[in-house]
Design a protein that fits this description.
The protein is an alpha+beta fold. Helices cover 27% and strands 26% of the residues.
Length: 242
């Protein structure tokens, strides 16, 4: 008698899931969007870094030296305050701007939040002494310009406008103060401007093309490069009349 042969169990092939069904089971766009959102958040956290340390040096109104202590030991870090620009040491009010920031941070422990380094190797970031944002305070007290070439922060822009109106800090000068970036471009030569009339309306000068905009213009404080200016600087905007 021949041994019984094992019977092969053949299962019917599973039907292929149509693409529309897969789309229902796996909502790919939502998953993809979620992954993109998570990736963006991680990138933001990765981009920003911070450290704390004691301020042991002040170069000028917007550059300080911080003694950083961590697991690797002690090191000094030169920090350039982001979004602002103060008078050069050779300019009027340069010494006063240095004194102003010294009073705020020298010998104190500060927190530096940064995202980049400049071409001179300085750490560029926001400096905090307790809850006080030093970058903003320097502008609000009239010792710094909002550096619009590198920053579009509305708070800094507003602080500069209010300091100008209040005529505090460097804005007490009867002559329109020369921005440090113009001073540097002029090769450190002393430059003065005509006095701004008392109560004159503020305007915005697009320094890329020399066009002046009034505060009702859509371009007021809304150009890549620019600064607040007097009513006679630059050429008037063809839309708002400057």
């Amino acid at each position: 008698m021949r041994p019984a042969q094992a019977q092969r169990l053949v299962l019917p092939a599973a039907p292929l899931t149509p693409p529309t069904a897969l789309a229902t089971i796996l909502p790919m766009p939502r998953v993809r969007s979620s992954l993109i959102l998570v990736g963006s958040c991680l990138a933001m956290f990765a981009a920003a870094a911070e450290f704390a340390g004691k301020v042991v040096g002040v170069s000028d109104g917007d550059t300080i030296t911080v003694l950083k202590v961590d697991g690797t030991g002690k090191s000094t870090v030169k920090v350039r305050l982001a979004g602002i620009d103060t008078p050069e040491s050779s300019q009027d009010h340069g010494a006063k701007a240095k004194q102003a920031i010294s009073a705020k941070v020298f010998g104190k422990t500060v927190r530096v939040v940064y995202t980049e380094h400049d071409r001179y190797g300085r750490t560029v970031g926001d400096v905090y002494a307790g809850e006080e944002w030093i970058n903003l305070q320097m502008v609000a007290e009239g010792w710094a310009w909002h550096y619009t070439h590198f920053s579009d922060d509305k708070r800094l822009a507003q602080a500069e406008e209010e300091a100008r109106r209040a005529r505090i800090g460097l804005w007490t000068d009867p002559n329109e103060p020369v921005p440090p970036w113009e001073h540097r471009q002029a090769g450190k030569k002393r430059v003065t401007r005509p006095a701004t009339p008392e109560g004159a309306p503020l305007h915005w000068l697009n320094t890329s093309n020399g066009t002046r905009h009034n505060r009702n213009c859509k371009h007021f404080q809304n150009t890549k490069r620019g600064r607040l200016c007097g009513p006679n600087e630059g050429r008037p905007c063809g839309v708002c009349g400057g």
